[in-house]
Write a structure and sequence with these properties.
With 292 residues, the protein is α+β, with helices and mostly antiparallel strands. It is 20% helix and 37% strand.
Amino acid sequence: MMKRRYLQLDVFADRPGAGNPLAVVLDAEGLDDAAMQAIARWTRLPETTFVFAPDAPGASYRIRMFSPRREVPFAGHPSVGTAHVVLDAGLAAPVDGRLLQEGVAGLLPLAVDGAGAARTIAVRTPRARVLETATAADPRLAAALRDLPLGALPPALMDGGRRWWLAELRDETALRNASPDWAAIGALAESTESMGLCAFARADAGRDYDLVVRAFVGAPAQFEDAASGAANATLAAWLQHNGALPGRDGRYTVSQGREVGFDARLQLHVDSEGDVWSGGQVHPIVSGHIDW
């Protein structure tokens, strides 16, 4: 038995309890796939990450991510949260304001700005592409979009490491009041090999955010994501594709999770090269050891 450093964090949160929870296991050397999956199943958090010494030249560290059910090639909030832990533990230091994460999705840079509780971290997400666009009458989508007042952009299926159907709603009120048809969203996810439906709307005037997002995961489990860096990055690529980015200079803020008891804030940036950076603040909640 070996005690390993273990932390739980709140990611994309300006205060504890607002964001998406994450578990991080440092000193993960010696854990095999079965053990990592078992730990992730035991934590019962959206994702648990495991930190290793890097293999690739120039990488700051190596990471593996597991949901309670399976290994995940890439996700935004585990990337951002793990980088925060690695910095605090002194396992890596930014070079010119950047870390380089090695993982299943390859080498991904992270931008680090500030220090301590005010520090923000953003990961450059894998490039997303448009797989297809559709209409609300599409038989695959009709049930999932029933009674939802759609906005200007058509529904689209995007692939950014994970596939999401994206649908713009008319306004913030319509999105916040929406009641998902879980059976329909589950069927949509399974029939299109996607995560499910990511619905979004422009924020009402006077808000401290630009966009509202709700991400309905349809398979293998069915739940509403509290704050999804990967889904939001895929959405940012779709908005960029349509010349419809909110905010200014490719930067905008997303509100997500309020409908499921959270209140996350995600900072999105589409840079001059068309790359999407997804980030925000991180709050450590639990710090100790895991004896596995």
